[in-house]
TrEMBL record:
Topology of the protein relative to the lipid bilayer: Lipid-anchor
Protein name: Efflux transporter outer membrane subunit
Cellular compartments annotated: Cell membrane
Cellular compartments per GO CC: plasma membrane
This protein's UniProt keywords: Lipoprotein, Membrane, Palmitate, Transmembrane, Transmembrane beta strand
Assigned protein family: Belongs to the outer membrane factor (OMF) (TC 1.B.17) family.
Primary location: membrane
Domain of life of the native organism: Bacteria
GO molecular function, one term: efflux transmembrane transporter activity
InterPro entries: MdtP/NodT-like, OMP_efflux
PROSITE patterns assigned: PROKAR_LIPOPROTEIN
A family per Pfam: OEP
Length: 481
């Protein structure tokens, strides 16, 4: 009797040491320091931010608002993001299920044959000849075995390990919601950017066709002068070549319009069709006042920052659960049902059987696996911290860059307007001088080319202003409500 007792004492000692070691690994980890965002954007503080404006209040063009509404309803990326949310929701339910006992109905049957020279075989043989055994209690060999009832298994969450894993799953569920909001903000911004690109192409097509009319008249004029002996064939060819180049630009712009319309239709989840739009880009109104608020307000609204923060907390919960794996676990496995070795007596009240088994288990030989899991969780949590810090820096840089870009583009727009006006006056003057014989045809062609390039540049700069405004709206956390 001493030998089994000695082994039992060793086992209990090992279990105690395992519990003490588990308590040791639960010492608090040193806190991780995350970045603190600046208090202002480039020393600018506004009471409100355009990032808080609803989509229809920020995008006042009804055609653009209608396109965004359609995209939010039919875009396949949003539909996929919603399904990822459902997957995360199912993971939360799965983790919640581990906190409760698992109960399963069981109807089983089997047969086994005892060897004559085994304890079971000898015992059953002797039992069949006992005076205390009724005829229906005698066991045959092979021996059937029937069970009808319920079995249960329950790990008691005494250390909070299962609740911690449920917390991690819930945080990931919240992170997928933020990811879906991020898809929405990017989609809204992309639809708006393409829409303003379309308005820019409309304006450029209008400018090109206006210049085509001007160049057509110039070709007619130079041909008249050639017939009158005041110009040569080279001048006619130069004016004609310039007109052909402008006509080629016309077709290129039309092709670009088709491509942008197709990209918008793809985002809207529909087949190609014309896009209804408003005035060209130069006739679109630009807001006079643009509030940016404070960085803290932006960080609270940006979905990517919130997603990174939630994922960081989820990985920290995983790390906590990995550390709790070192502690002993308590498992309870009861059962209740009808158990017999003969089918005819299975439903007899005497066949009622129940049992309850409880046990405490602690890891002893598999610590290397648990340590590997803890190190992996530690690395994932640290990586998530770096990702969060990166998201904060990126968010601030995007907002600050968009603000500075808007200020610079406003100055460029003013200069481009003056340049275009000056060159348009130069075209009129060059035509008058050419007709009066004080300028040659090359000066007229140069003036026409310069004004066309300036007008096209003016539309491109105005497009960049609107796109930068959209980028600032997204950078400040707008576009996902």
């Amino acid at each position: 009797m001493d030998l089994p007792l000695k082994y039992l004492n060793r086992f209990l000692a090992g279990l105690l040491l395992s519990a003490l070691y588990g308590c040791k690994v639960m010492t608090p980890l040193p806190p991780k320091v995350s970045l603190q965002a600046p208090r202002t954007f480039l020393e600018r503080v506004d009471s409100t931010s355009i990032g808080t404006l609803p989509i229809r209040e920020f995008f006042t063009d009804p055609n653009l608002a209608a396109l965004i509404d359609t995209a939010l309803l039919r875009n396949p990326d949003i539909a996929m993001a919603i399904q990822r949310i459902e997957i995360a929701r199912a993971s939360v339910l799965e983790r919640e299920g581990t906190l409760l006992p698992s109960v399963s109905a069981e109807a089983s049957g089997g047969v086994r044959r005892f060897g004559k020279y085994t304890s079971d075989g000898v015992g059953n043989y002797d039992t069949n000849f006992s005076d205390n055994i009724e005829p229906d209690q005698k066991m045959s060999n092979p021996l059937p075995d029937y069970f009808l009832g319920v079995r249960s298994s329950w790990e008691v969450d005494i250390w909070g390990k299962l609740r911690t894993r449920r917390k991690g799953a819930y945080l990931r569920f919240l992170a997928t919601e933020k990811a879906q909001q991020l898809v929405v903000t990017n989609l809204v911004a992309e639809v708006a950017r393409l829409y303003y690109q379309l308005l820019t192409l409309d304006n450029q097509l209008e400018i090109i066709r206006s210049n085509e009319d001007l160049q057509n008249k110039a070709v007619e004029t130079i041909e008249i002068q050639k017939d009158a002996g005041r110009a040569n064939e080279l001048a006619v060819r130069q004016f004609a070549a310039q007109l052909l180049n402008t006509q080629a630009l016309d077709i290129q712009i039309q092709q670009q319009i088709l491509e942008v319309e197709n990209r918008i239709n793809l985002l809207l989840g529909r087949f190609s069709q014309p896009i209804t739009r408003g005035n060209p880009i130069l006739r679109q109104t630009f807001p006079d006042q643009i509030g940016v608020g404070v960085p803290a307000q932006m960080l609270r609204r940006r979905p990517d920052v919130q997603q990174a923060e939630l994922e960081l907390k989820a990985y920290e919960a995983d790390l906590q659960a990995a550390r709790l794996d070192f502690l002993p676990s308590l498992n309870i496995t009861p059962y209740l049902g009808l158990h017999a070795f003969r089918g005819s007596v299975l439903f007899s009240p005497a066949s009622l059987a129940f049992g309850l088994l409880g046990g405490v288990t602690a890891p002893i030989l598999n610590r290397k696996t648990l340590k590997a899991g803890q190190r992996r969780s530690q690395a994932q949590a640290t990586e998530a911290l770096f990702a969060y810090n990166k998201a904060v820096i990126n968010a601030f840089q995007e907002a600050a860059l968009s603000m500075r870009t808007m200020d610079n583009l406003k100055k460029i727009v003013d200069l481009k307007e003056q340049e275009t006006t000056t060159l348009q006056q130069g075209v009129s003057i060059s035509n008058d001088l050419f007709l009066a014989g004080y300028a040659n045809y090359l000066e007229v062609i140069t003036a026409q080319r310069s004004v066309l390039a300036a007008e096209l540049d003016q539309t491109t700069i105005q497009q960049q202003r609107f796109i930068t405004l959209v980028n600032l709206y997204r950078a400040l956390g707008g576009g996902w409500e």
